[in-house]
Amino acid sequence: MIGYVTGRWNEGVEPVDRSLLPERMGEYRRKGCRILTMTGTDERLEGRQFALYWVLADDRQGSLVTLRTDIPEDDPQFPSVTAVFPAANWYEREVRDLLGLKPIGHIDPRPLVLHGDWLEEGYPLRKDYRQPARPSSVVDLDRPVHYRGEGIVEVPVGPIHAGIIEPGHFRFGTLGDHIVHLDPRLFYTHRGLEKQAEGRTVEEALQLAERTCGVCAASHAASFSQAIERIANVKIPERAEGLRVILLEMERMYNHVGDLGNICAGLGFAFGVQHGARLKERLMQINEELTGHRYLRGVIQPGGVDWHPGESELYDLSIKLKEWMNDLLQVVETILSHDGTVERMGGTGKLGLNDAMEMDVVGPAARASGIHRDMRRNFPYGMYRFLQLRVPLYKSGDVLARYRVRIDELEQAYRLIREVMELLPKGETLVPLPSLDEGSWGIGWSESPRGDNVHWVMIGENQRISRYRVRSASYVNWPAVPHAVEGNIVPDFPLINKSFELCYACCDR
Predict the structure, then answer these.
(1) The whole model's pTM is what?
(2) pLDDT digit string, tens, across residues 138-178
(3) What is the fold of 193-473?
(4) Whole-angstrom Cα distance, residue 256 to residue 501?
(5) What distance in Å separates the CA atoms of residue 68 and residue 52, rounded to the nearest whole number?
(6) Where is the NADH-quinone oxidoreductase subunit D domain (predicted)?
(7) What's the rounded Cα separation, in Å, for the pair 14 and 53?
(8) Which residues contact 468 (CB under 8 A, 6 or more apart)?
(9) 247, 290, 310, 355 — which has fewest CB within 10 A?
């Protein structure tokens, strides 16, 4: 397998004829590779064609390879690879909806992003797409699954929910209280961030990257920045690398402790709900004291970080986090000593190792199902390459395992922050970027609280963004939720869903 090389649009890439795509992808699948991301591009203005870039990762070897397939304008289709790579399902359906590149032989021909009432005028991610002022026609693209059979009942839930949450529609096929099948439908508030990025400067696109997800701003900023830094062939200062780790682990901590409380909400265990919210709020107050923003926006940027904490600030942080950790451990001990809570989580919402592997699941969900996968270890970036990272691993794949993974990672995040403070050198925190060559592209990643978060960027004219692709951890993990839900009872769905704690906005980008 060739290693990944960042640079010109055709550098470090294995060209694959579209007729041979399933065969070649199958070969990489048999080698143990997974899809890190797939990007469709419209390169007709540069004298080329449409193209698909498949970035494949070998976690064991720590290597990446990119396959590029040209798609002609007069025949915009390609053979589907979903049969050999099940995780390609959403990628192929999305590229059909937004670029008009049709995956022939796909197992699920329904629209993914453009469901509901949609304009028939063109494909939004093509360069020649223009939003019509007045649509000439609208087509109903909804194709829900309908369940038939004696005793089978359809139970629709959402997209409007009884709480202040994002919209998602869940159509259950049930036999009594037991879930036979779940058909989830997302993408109700697609914002077109990738389209908005076209023609913007790097600085302007960073604002979009940070707003992909409200609670993963640092992870998205880090992934985007690393993509730009790889294109520019820039190494950021070591102090900036360390400060990024502190920010990313702080983001992991406030997300994970919030998730611990939210899972308790699915149980109706008020003690865990209230203390989870309290502990999360304290961390967000610390974020604001440190950086000026509760969600850590405006700090990580291409070239380093715009953050200059002094020794006294970092010392105060270590003291506050030590007190916070002592508080957390007492709360966790109480929760896990509650027999009813542990029994309700144990054995519920199991995601087996085989299903998790087939769906290329990432993050805590993967590690709870026995997959030893973490971008900080398998593809170390920044100062993570110098740190002692212990990846927690469970095999039961149930709600309790996902709960315990988060507890372990909270303790490790605290330890990593302390370790970084000991290693943190003095010096600059930001370096300028050189000119970015037109046609160059790069990829950046981070291990967000939900799993690996991948950004793919191509540079166009005048150092502006030509194509921007965001692949969040939620985008990968959502298709696995129905596998975990099947066979459980309907009242356990909120608990199972909260144990994955996936984001809708990360898909609606």
Answers:
(1) 0.94
(2) 566 667 777 778 888 888 887 887 777 788 888 898 999 89
(3) Cytochrome-c3 Hydrogenase; chain B (1.10.645)
(4) 10
(5) 6
(6) 276-431, 446-509
(7) 10
(8) 193, 194, 197, 198, 205, 208, 455, 456, 457, 458
(9) 310
